[in-house]
Amino acid sequence: MKTTPEHNERIANMKFFSVFPHYVTKIEKKGRTKEELFTVIEWLTGFNEEKLNELIEEKVTFKTFFERADLNPNAHLIKGVICGYRIEEIDNELTKKARYLDKVIDELAKGRKLEKIMREPK
């Protein structure tokens, strides 16, 4: 499924602070912790808990969030389908990064081990 320009624009303009509580609810409902959530987000973006809280306070958009992020060099290893889109086929870089984030949070909620989620080379 290809993303549309409208879809990409909607992702870019979404506010991170409004989505973050949904991430917390999703993982806690499945028995995972907020600390684990911060761990996978830091692995993907380079943002520690303090920096994430600053971005939440600042009410940044996903566009700003990912412009400031230092994406992990292994992020390209995140593959699969999330929200109906095959990550490998997304051609808009910002939308792809947002789906990387969705995917690692989904994996955390599904009980996947942190070592597997963070895709460190062996």
Note the topology.
Blueprint: H1 5-13, H2 16-29, H3 34-45, H4 49-58, H5 62-68, E1 81-82, E2 85-86, H6 93-109, H7 114-117
Antiparallel strand pairs: 1-2
Protein name: DUF2200 domain-containing protein
InterPro entries: SP1917_dom_sf (IPR023204), UCP033199 (IPR014580)
What tags apply to this protein structure?
122 residues, mainly alpha, Helicase, Ruva Protein, domain 3, two-stranded antiparallel sheet, 2 strands, 60% helix, DUF2200 domain-containing protein, UCP033199, SP1917_dom_sf
Describe this structure in words.
There is one protein chain. The protein is mainly alpha-helical and 122 residues long. It has a single domain, classed as Helicase, Ruva Protein, domain 3, CATH 1.10.8.290. Helices cover 60% and strands 3% of the residues. The protein has a two-stranded antiparallel ribbon with strand order 1-2. Helix 2 runs parallel beside helix 6 and helix 3 runs antiparallel to helix 6. The longest helix is centred in the C-terminal third of the chain and has 17 residues. It is globular. The mean pLDDT is 95. Pfam families: DUF2200 (PF09966). It comes from Seonamhaeicola marinus. This is DUF2200 domain-containing protein.
